[in-house]
Amino acid sequence: MSIKMLLLVITILTSPLTYARQANIGCTEGDCQNGYGVFISQGGRKYVGDWKNGLPNGKGLLLVKRSSGTARYIGSFKDDKRDGTGTILNPDGSIYIGEFRDDKMYGHGTMYYQDGTRYEGEFKADKLNGEGVLVSPGKLRYEGSFKNNLPDGRGVLLNYINGSRKAGLFKEGKFLGK
């Protein structure tokens, strides 16, 4: 993704968007069957984008109210599910840019966490699964296999705090040895 596109996505996702405290529920603008429209659900979700057969299909913006704030997703949809490439901005400030399948982070992506930690690699069912690199600035760097968000398989862990290096086999986040 180019820097210009990334900046555009971040601008859209972080812009102050307000919606529905009003009685407008359902398709409030456009064509929410086969075209481009705006739909607000009873539960506080707002979708702006392409529609096919009465479902979000194509490119769109989804806003979801949570107790901690509003989550924003901009990207591809297939039959009302995130599918293809997209970007999520979570209320906690974390950002995911990458691939989706069946409404979950799935495939290659990058997650930027609020504390500066960054993971780039494979995701499956919204979790770090597969090969990847996790970097926590000033603390650690792990490069290798992940399973269910933990180092699992072959990898290298560099601990910047105590200067240690562990290379070998990991299981459920624990180093087993070479």
Protein described:
The chain is mainly beta and 178 residues long. It has one helix and 14 strands, in the order αββββββββββββββ. It has a 14-stranded antiparallel sheet with strand order 1-2-3-4-5-6-7-8-9-10-11-12-13-14, with helices on one face. A hairpin with a 2-residue loop joins β9 (118-124) and β10. The protein is elongated, with a radius of gyration of 19 Å.
Topology, element by element:
Layout (H helix, E strand, L loop, with lengths): L2 H12 L11 E5 L5 E5 L5 E7 L2 E12 L2 E10 L2 E9 L5 E7 L2 E9 L5 E7 L2 E10 L3 E8 L2 E10 L5 E7 L2 E4 L1
Antiparallel strand pairs: 1-2, 2-3, 3-4, 4-5, 5-6, 6-7, 7-8, 8-9, 9-10, 10-11, 11-12, 12-13, 13-14
List keywords for this structure.
14-stranded antiparallel beta sheet; single chain; mainly beta; about 5% helix; about 180 residues
Mean pLDDT: 90
Question: Structural class of the helices, strands and pairings?
Answer: mainly beta
Rough outline = elongated
Helicity level: under 10%
In percent, how much strand structure appears in the residues? over 45%
Q: Tell me the radius of gyration.
A: 19 Å
End-to-end span in angstroms? 37 Å
